[in-house]
Design brief:
Largest sheet of chain A: 8 strands, mixed
Structural class of chain B: mainly alpha
Radius of gyration of chain B: 19 Å
Oligomer: heterodimer
Order of helices and strands of chain A: HHEHHEEHEEHEHEE
Number of strands of chain A: 8
Shape of chain A: elongated
Number of helices of chain B: 19
Distance between the termini of chain A: 95 Å
Strand content of chain B: under 5%
Helix content of chain B: 55-70%
Number of helices of chain A: 7
Helix content of chain A: 40-55%
CATH topology of the largest domain in chain A: Alpha-Beta Plaits
CATH architecture of the largest domain in chain B: Up-down Bundle
Number of strands of chain B: 0
């Protein structure tokens, strides 16, 4: 009788030990999965904010409001006549057309060491020199704009074959200091830039319609870009919220091959 | 950004192996504990690249803790997403007796890794040398000093990080095929203590600074007292003396990489040497401002922008770019260009010692 009781006790203890080990293994696996997921997210976030910002968030287990002043080249891009176009197309085709366009342009921006800072309806803001130091940021932004011009021609050729209308883009580019940091509230946050440089780039982009050109840059860009870019001075126009009438230049091409 | 080994996209190596001269093979074996890795035959046609990178990767140190060497290799390879070096270092750590969980901790989160606070600081210092964004500053150096690391130890820690940066670039740009001996194999388990002893090695005797004339002499001098100074001096001299690409082309690549990394010293050094090679300050300034100039020859017009791309990259993108370049250069030109870019990336990062010490 005692032997049976001891065997039963040993079996029960063995079962308990096996069960707790199985539980520990399951917890370890879940922790492993969580760590892998965190690592994946960390890698994904590196495309949206500088590494030190992401690491700061992870180390402090929270978002810092620390900001810094950086020299950045800001590119605003927008579609011309898109509002009218949007009224003609059914929503599904419109969204497909727009997403395809964002996909193509996002790739071009990344190829030129920029990153998309924000989508603004049918336009977007791209930053050069914001995530990592980039002494060639002005040239990169201008090459990106020219490459986007070519990429749009290709994209239009493809979408026209599907019976969709052509798109037309315009760009405003300015270089200068910005305040960079994590912006937002407790519900929605993003790494972004603010300041006069951003506002001026936006205004210059709007000015492309006045001058009927597609790529317009400021004097700060002209002064820091490769002399092989072909630029044409535009008549001075007063811009809302900007003192004086800042000189602007249309970008016609690049002579460096 | 760090990445786990399984997530690193990696292309096919297109450089076919070539016959290896016996003396070159012997040099490589000497540097790598008797091992002649498969990749060495792919570089054999440009002997300095095949010989100097194993030497740079060998423990030519007299001061820093031996255990830190492989750990730095792991964190730097991870930072550079070098699948080849990452895999090799992982295997080395396992052979040296680190269990899988400890290696995983190092990979996952340095903050949680089972290392001493001093080692943690040293590993973070090495990782930030590799990342170079932002570039390290005097307070970073001071923290290591406060943790008890002497100046020669810190110099060797920086050297270890910088040489891993070099090795990562060679392996990544040329897409060395990853393939490693599983440490779990029974034979490997049995032989592990013997192999570990050989790999761990021992500290060398401190050495006086070797004759140190030529570009980046101050960076080499920052390693005074360490055998690493001799190894680095030889690597720089061999690289510049090789006849495959003109010296001017190689100096231009160094200047571009210096500029990309905010390393004014390397930029200045290369510019001074370029002046002797007939390229005046205005011409150099033009190249550095625009990554191009009508004064560049065909190869330079390709290699100057390429040098910039080797500083920070996404692995698939840089492997694709290197492969594209291989269509426009001879095999030896490409290997030498990759060797120069890799070495320059290491030297420019190591030059942080001049600013922080």
């Amino acid at each position: 009788m005692l032997t049976i009781a001891l065997v039963a006790l040993a079996a029960a203890l063995g079962w308990l030990a096996w069960r707790s080990r199985a539980r520990a293994t399951a917890i370890e696996n879940r922790l492993e999965d969580a760590a892998r997921e965190l690592e994946r997210l960390q890698n994904a976030f590196a495309r949206f904010a500088p590494l030190d910002v992401i690491e700061g968030i992870i180390e402090r287990r929270g978002v810092s409001t620390r900001s810094e002043i950086k020299e950045v080249t800001v590119l605003f891009a927008d579609l011309k006549g898109f509002t009218a176009l949007a009224e003609q197309l059914d929503p599904g085709r419109l969204v497909a057309l727009l997403n395809g366009y964002f996909q193509v342009m996002g790739r071009v921006v990344a190829e030129h060491r920029g990153h998309l800072g924000k989508f603004l309806g049918d336009g977007f803001l791209a930053l050069f020199g914001a995530l990592e130091p980039n002494p060639w940021q002005t040239n990169d932004a201008l090459h990106a704009a020219l490459a986007m011009r070519d990429a749009l021609t290709d994209y239009n050729r493809r979408t026209q074959a599907d019976g969709l209308p052509s798109l037309a883009m315009c760009f405003g580019i300015h270089r200068g200091p910005v305040v960079a940091g994590v912006l937002g509230n407790s519900a929605l946050m993003e790494y972004g830039v603010i300041g006069r440089t951003v506002n001026l780039a936006a205004r210059v982009e709007r000015l492309t319609r006045v001058h009927d050109v597609d790529i317009l840059v400021t004097e700060a860009v002209r002064d820091t870009c490769d002399a092989r870019f072909r630029l044409r001075a535009m008549p001075a126009v007063e811009l809302k919220g900007v003192p004086g009438a800042p000189p602007t230049f249309a970008v016609e091409g690049f002579d460096g091959g | 950004m760090s990445d786990s080994i399984a997530n690193i996209e990696w292309g096919e190596c297109w450089l076919e192996p070539t016959p290896m001269p016996p003396e070159l093979a012997a040099d490589i074996r000497r540097a790598l504990h008797g091992v002649l890795p498969a990749w060495s035959a792919r570089l054999a046609t440009v002997p300095w690249v095949a010989r100097e990178f194993p030497r740079l990767s060998s423990k030519s140190i007299a001061h820093m803790p031996l255990d830190l060497w492989e750990m730095i290799g792991l964190v730097v390879s991870q930072d550079n997403s070098c699948r080849y070096c990452y895999g090799v270092t992982r295997v080395l750590l396992r052979v040296l007796g680190y269990d899988a969980a400890r290696v995983q901790q190092l990979e996952r989160d340095l903050n949680l890794a089972d290392v001493s606070p001093g080692d943690h600081l040293a590993l973070d210092f090495a990782r930030r040398i590799s990342h170079a964004n932002p570039r390290l500053s005097a307070p970073d150096y001071a923290r290591l000093r406060e943790a008890g690391y002497s100046k020669p130890v810190i110099a060797e820690i920086a050297y270890c990080a910088a040489t891993n940066v070099c090795a990562n670039r060679i392996a990544t740009l040329l897409a060395f095929p990853p393939g490693f001996t599983p440490v779990e194999r029974v034979a490997m388990r049995l032989l592990r203590p013997l192999v570990a002893r050989r790999i761990r090695g021992k500290l060398m005797q401190p050495e006086p600074l070797p004759p140190n004339v030529g570009p980046c002499a101050d960076v080499v001098a920052a390693l005074d007292g360490s055998p690493a100074a001799r190894v680095l001096r030889t690597a720089i001299d061999e690289a510049l003396a090789s006849p495959v690409l003109p010296r001017r082309t190689k100096l231009l690549m160094l200047a571009v990489i210096g500029k990309a990394l905010g390393c004014a010293y390397s930029e200045r050094e290369a510019s001074a040497e370029l002046a002797q090679a007939g390229l005046g300050p205005a011409d150099v300034a033009e190249v550095l401002t625009n990554l191009g100039s009508p004064k560049l020859d065909r190869r330079e017009a390709l290699l100057v922008p390429f040098a910039r791309e080797t500083v920070r990259y996404q692995v698939p993108v840089i492997q694709r770019r290197t492969r594209e370049l291989s269509q426009q250069l001879t095999r030896d030109e490409l290997i030498e260009a990759v060797g120069i870019a890799s070495l320059a990336n290491g030297v420019c990062r190591l030059s942080i010692l001049l600013e922080t010490c």
